[in-house]
Amino acid sequence: MHAPSDQHIDQLARSYGEEYTPDVEAGLSRLHARIKAMEGDASVEATSSTTVIEANGAAIRPLAARKTTAPLPAAAPPRAGRRRFFSLVAAAAVLLLLTVWWNFADRDTTLVAEGENLETTLPDGTRLILQDGSTLTYAADFNETERRVELTGQAFFEVTKDAARPFRAGRAGVEMTVTGTAFNLRVGPDELEVEVAEGSVLLNAAEGQTAVEANQCGVARPGEAPKLMPAPHLNRHAWRTGKLSFTEAKLADVLRTICNNYGISVTGAEDCDFPVSGKFSSRDAEEILANIAKLGGGKVSPARDTPGGYELSGLCAD
Amino acid sequence: MQRPPTYTEATDADLILSLRRGEAPALDELFRRYYVGLCRMALRYLTDRARCEDVVQDFFVSLWERRESLPDDLNAVDAYLRRGVRNRCLNAIRDRGRVPVDEGEVPETYAAPSATAELENAELKARIHAAIDRLPDRCRLVFTMSKIEDMSNREIADALDLSQKTVENQMTRAYKYLRQYLAGLPMLVIPLVIFIIPAFSP
């Protein structure tokens, strides 16, 4: 077998990465947004500092030249008293301005789903269904140059198209980017899992990058490159749609999907494996587990010592 | 020197002068001319496309911020921009503690079954690129910095804070893996390979 020479390899390698062609106009509008944001911050900072300077010079300046919202006294107190009063007023004005600026400039919004799924819309029009027990956070500058959210738990997103402001979600070294699509995202302590219904999503980790297309599922764990799996039935959307469908799936995979999806734990199937096929339509995890257990000739019962846990018994019994 | 009628017709050096004077369209024109090239270069260091675009855009923001103090005798604007973006990439790698560590073995070669019966140079190229993608991070970084960015082993060692010996080792591994990967072709295609490759040998 003929192996290529080093020079041949070099020649072929030269064009590595040339298929990558970012959208220039989209990049340009993001650049404008960044510059505007940067100049906006700078001018606010200038205002606060200018106020401080004005406050320090208040004693020397004539009254008419200074802008302040505080009312001035009608009677004229003695000179020393007047100077102290004006510096107090100026200090209050500075404090007021800083508080107002800080409040508007630095506020995060956190959405929490407690007791049931939370259905809402984000400021850019993105439709969000947050699973019970999950939280989503976004900053005050959410739709300025990009749309960044932080999720703990699981949610379904229908993202409004905006190539100039990419939608980003992620955590600890793994991040996904979309420009307009519908997908289910689950962020757990050790992994990030995205199952795409429509469009496509880019999963980025330090170790690698993968595009996840419709009817695929991408999983990223720290220290590994993202992995891709086919997901023809969009089973990971089941917590929201109530629909699961399996075709000759391994029992272990089925149980893992159900556990991750419904937030439960299941024991009793460690030594058993049988192919699971069928459509399940229920938001009740126990009902689905009962049907699956039946396939293996067994049954399910709530685990006594574990809340949200279930025990399978009698599977693969001969 | 007379100012050119439009920005699209201006030389790079003139655009820098316009930029110094605070003319925003000059920044836009430079951006349009160099964005794709700079992003492609950044991709060799950062592997993350979104981050590449962020880094290049941040660079242009800083160009605008310090427009008044840009050099007024800039000849090779291209090289100036590339140097700026490259430094940002290297800083990003270093600061985030992201200089890739040695993960041990290169991955198993994987013979991707080819549906097509022909093997052209284009497909060889595609395979090499796929193989480069699969190199361990440190190995790939060293390889692309050497063969595409044309950096010397010494420069790479300095930039990534490695010994020159390590750089040489990584290059050896890279070639070994790439050759192995190219060689791992399905049985169907081998006769054709034997026929075609000699046609391309130097």
Tell me about this structure:
The complex is a heterodimer of chains A (318) and B (202). With 318 residues, chain A is an alpha+beta fold. Helix content of chain A is 30%, strand content 31%. The longest helix of chain A has 33 residues. By secondary structure, chain B is mostly helical. Chain B has nine helices and no strands. The longest helix of chain B is centred in the first third of the chain and has 23 residues.
Q: Note the quaternary state here.
A: heterodimer
Query: How many angstroms separate the termini of chain B?
Result: 49 Å
* Spatial gap, N to C terminus of chain A: 54 Å
Structural category of chain B: mainly alpha
Q: What is the mean pLDDT of chain B?
A: 78
Task: Report mean pLDDT of chain A, rounded to a whole number.
Answer: 77
Share in β-strands of chain B: under 5%
Cα radius of gyration of chain B in angstroms:
21 Å
Structure in a nutshell:
Chain A contains six helices and 18 strands. Chain A is of the alpha+beta class and 318 residues long.
List keywords for this structure.
heterodimer, A: 318 residues, 13-stranded mixed β-sheet, B: 202 residues, disordered C terminus
Question: What's the helix and strand layout?
Answer:
The complex is a heterodimer of chains A (318) and B (202).
Chain A: H1 6-13, H2 24-56, H3 79-105, E1 109-112, E2 118-121, E3 127-130, E4 135-138, E5 147-158, E6 167-171, E7 174-178, E8 182-187, E9 192-198, E10 200-205, E11 208-213, E12 216-220, E13 227-230, H4 238-241, E14 243-249, H5 251-262, E15 265-267, E16 276-281, H6 285-295, E17 299-302, E18 309-313
Parallel strand pairs in A: 5-6, 15-18
Antiparallel strand pairs in A: 1-4, 2-3, 3-5, 4-5, 5-8, 6-7, 7-10, 8-9, 9-12, 10-11, 12-13, 14-16, 17-18
Chain B: H1 12-20, H2 24-46, H3 49-65, H4 77-95, H5 121-134, H6 137-147, H7 153-160, H8 164-183, H9 190-200
